[in-house]
Amino acid sequence: MKVVGLMSGTSGDGVDAALVDISGRGRSLKARMLATESLAYPRTLQMRILTASVSGTVAEICHLNALLGEWFANAALQVIRQAKLRPADVALIGSHGQTVHHLPNGIQAPGVGAIRSTLQIAEPAVIAERTGITTIANFRPRDIAAGGQGAPLTPVAHALLLKHPRRARLIVNLGGISNVTYVPRGGGQEGVVAFDTGPANMVLDGLVNRLTNGRFLMDRDGKLAARGKVDARLLGKLLAHPFLSKRPPKSTGREVFGPALIDELVTIQKQQGLSIEDLLATCSMWTAKAVGTARRWIKGEVDEVVVGGGGIRNRAIMAHMAAVFAPVPVATFDALGWESKAFEAVAFAVLAYQTATGQWGNLPAVTGAKHPVLLGTIVPGGGRW
Q1: Contact 314, 221 (CB under 8 A)
Q2: Residue 112's pLDDT is what?
Q3: CA-CA distance, 257 to 198, in Å (whole number)?
Q4: How far apart, in whole angstroms, are the C-alpha atoms of residue 23 and residue 7?
Q5: Rounded CA gap, 93 and 124, in Å?
Q6: What does each C-alpha distance from 301 to 39, 156, 165, 176, 212 come to in angstroms?
Q7: Residue 263's CB: how many other CB atoms inside 10 A?
């Protein structure tokens, strides 16, 4: 079955699309990459998304939901064209959408206790209408309804596609937020441990944007961080962040590691007289050490660390990762035959396939859900399902 996966992460920089040919069930599932595409948002749209996630009006989020539906549909059509296929050749689209808010710990409601919630936009009805392809979206809410945190969901794909018969792997995604999946030797979903570890590109990008007054949106290739020196006092303060010591299941987002944290870091930078290079070097090390804390929640040995996501382009983070995990080797998804930046899109293609074939897509031991569930909302496309 040919499936398109669509993903836009917490950095809100664009849509990653992957066209995958998937077959089999359970541990015999196989997937082959046919094409990938990245459709970058204009800077103005990225800023609207990031602002909406903190202080967006109902009208703004309503409009962005429909607008991003168009962007996601375009990304799907582009990756299909790149593979020299037609929309009619594709059975399914799995769209993660764009997260604008994630409240995994809930807000107290009178008479019912804490209500967990999450909101991803990019209207799937628009995607299905523009492409004519059945679209599955809104994956996270069903897990939350079953008592989970709605995240992380990619560990199912990690366990199915990145397992190794003789090596236990720690799969790391360096997106806006970093997350890990421990896949024991031999694979299978039993024994998989996964959770968010905390900061990654979201903090670094936010600092660069703020400290350059919007002239730059990222520290490209980690060049600034590589020139800086890690400040031990600030690093110690950052490593004491309560999220790092919280027991899984746990997930997080911009609500914890977004604008309020950037404000705090900029204030500390001024108080301590740190250069932008030193601040970025310290936060890059924080990212790597936060990932390293994952080992306290994992019982088995780690034979290999495999890293994906946009953060692999940041040489400073990757150098720190190698130091944190030494002597365990650190490789990238690309070394395993998967394009690092596109793998999360692949994961949502797999999750859509799971739902379409009647297989549950969450791991209750990972998300905290009471039981396995089929994930997502199904929007038929072109009158077929």
Answers
A1: yes
A2: 84
A3: 8
A4: 21
A5: 9
A6: 38, 20, 14, 27, 42
A7: 12
